[in-house]
Amino acid sequence: MSNDDLGHWMAHIQARTEAALESWLPASDLAPTRLHEAMRYATLGGGKRVRPLLAHAAGALVGAAPGALDRIACAVELIHAYSLVHDDLPCMDDDVLRRGKPTVHVEFDEATALLAGDALQALAFRVVADPGLGIPSDRQLALVAMLADAAGSRGMAGGQAIDLAAVGQTMSRADLEFMHIHKTGALIRAAIRMGAACGATADPDRDTALDHFGKRVGLMFQVVDDILDTQADTATLGKTAGKDAAQDKPTYVSILGLTDARALADELLAEALASLEGLGGEAQRLAQLAQFIVHRKF
After folding, report:
1. Domains of the chain: which residue ranges?
2. Which CATH superfamily is domain 3-295 in?
3. Is the peptide bond prior to 32 cis by the omega test (within 30 degrees of 0)?
4. Which of 124, 235, 259, 267 could be joined to 78 by an S-S link, Cβ 3.0–4.6 Å?
5. Could you report the per-residue pLDDT of 271-292, keeping only the tens digit for each?
6. Alpha helices for the chain (secondary structure H)
């Protein structure tokens, strides 16, 4: 598969995800209108949609129905969008720019941003629990549990708590990895696992390989994010560049240095690709996405 082929496929999945989000989000003219406007502002028309892409690629590997994968993609992206809204709040990272536009609490207000995040999280579970998902009820229930684990105190929310407590502190590489396995990696891993769980048959060996791939890609995403925070400008990133250093947050670059952080990203990529060996040619899309993540510029 060529890079052009990957680009076309990514654009196709991104468009499908945008349409799915559009269909599930409440209309902006539906009361309470300000809340619904904020939810749509936070979610539509921006982002790389990495988690939906990974969900679709994992699902395609197991022959999952595209309609089911649209719903999984929508759910994980709603959780991601909610997390960004809350992370940007003054009580968290206190940022004013996200995806090249004012953050939700700046564009609206803090209370509306808080409620928009809450509502996006609730909507994500509504999407997964909907009877139209079209898979057996026991697996659908397992999907709800996967998403809850990824978003909760043993996943993304827990990682953010560790991140807030780490400001101004010295952190070991092992502690930093533990934090990002939860804060960044949990939802990326869940997107892959949930996409694969929509397939017709279970395969423990395949699922173990995909889970290992997800863990490596989740960490790799954060390593690259830390590198970009020091190398790219605000216009390219669409968010405030250099914010981690300004807030004295431990990062892979601050702990390892830029050269070793880049080497770690390459090492994680090699491990991710190795975990796909034996899964056949259909795993090539996941391999391409891993390479896209490590080489991305924003």
Report:
1. 3-295
2. Farnesyl Diphosphate Synthase (1.10.600.10)
3. yes
4. 124
5. 999 999 989 888 999 999 999 9
6. 3-24, 33-43, 50-61, 66-87, 104-107, 110-129, 137-151, 156-165, 173-183, 185-197, 204-231, 234-237, 243-246, 252-256, 258-275, 284-295
